[in-house]
Amino acid sequence: MTEPAGAGGDLTDAAYRRIRSMLLYQELRPGERTSVGRLSAATGLGRAPVKAAIDRLAGEGLFQIRGRSGTSVTRLTATGVTQMFEMRSLYEDAAAPLIAERITDEQVADALALVPALTSAPSPEERTPEELTRRIEFIDNDVEFHRRIIAGANNPYLCDAYRSLNLHLLISHYLVLDTGAHETQRQNEHIDIAHALQERDAAALASTLRRHADVVRDAIVKTINRREVTR
């Protein structure tokens, strides 16, 4: 397949979005092996943009590329997810007092601007293209909301470490959205986090972030365990 001149970036973005949606709807399942050729055929796009999209998704922790072993969807285990959320809570606990002390009014406003998008979660039952778009937007907004909060610590080393961890957690966000578990509770937690941020209350911020992380972790672990049983 030949790509039009100058269209490489657009085609890579198209491949990225399509493959990401395949991951979201479990058309590509955790642990499954795949290839550039297979995904090129599935997306109807050329090998070059598909390869670039796979590399981008691998950088986000969604694929593993291992030389002769080929490319596979990152496999999640209950133990691995628990350990990643332990690290997330350690970062957030450490960041909370720094955020309360250092975050600027502009940074608070930037984080709060995302709250409306996080208090209307997508439906787990609907699988229309429109609902798929809403799910992906919800994931992106959720990840960005937490990134902006941690950015309020104004510590670039902490921000880089947290960003790297969140990339590995990204695929787990897909799993929890697929369950539809605790939707109302998670929406309320975003509001509580926003309130603690506005008040610059370090203790409340740490507490609400940890409670939120625990709810999401438990939903993901239950999903993984259920799928292991039915495999």
From TrEMBL:
Record InterPro entries: GntR_C (IPR011711), TF_FadR/GntR_C (IPR008920), Tscrpt_reg_HTH_GntR (IPR000524), WH-like_DNA-bd_sf (IPR036388), WH_DNA-bd_sf (IPR036390)
Family annotation (Gene3D superfamilies): GntR ligand-binding domain-like (1.20.120.530), Winged helix-like DNA-binding domain superfamily/Winged helix DNA-binding domain (1.10.10.10)
Protein name: Uncharacterized HTH-type transcriptional regulator ydfH
Gene of this entry: ydfH_1
Annotated Pfam families: FCD, GntR
Keywords assigned: DNA-binding, Transcription, Transcription regulation
Residues in HTH gntR-type domain copies: 9-76
Species for this entry: Nocardia africana
MF-aspect GO terms: DNA binding; DNA-binding transcription factor activity
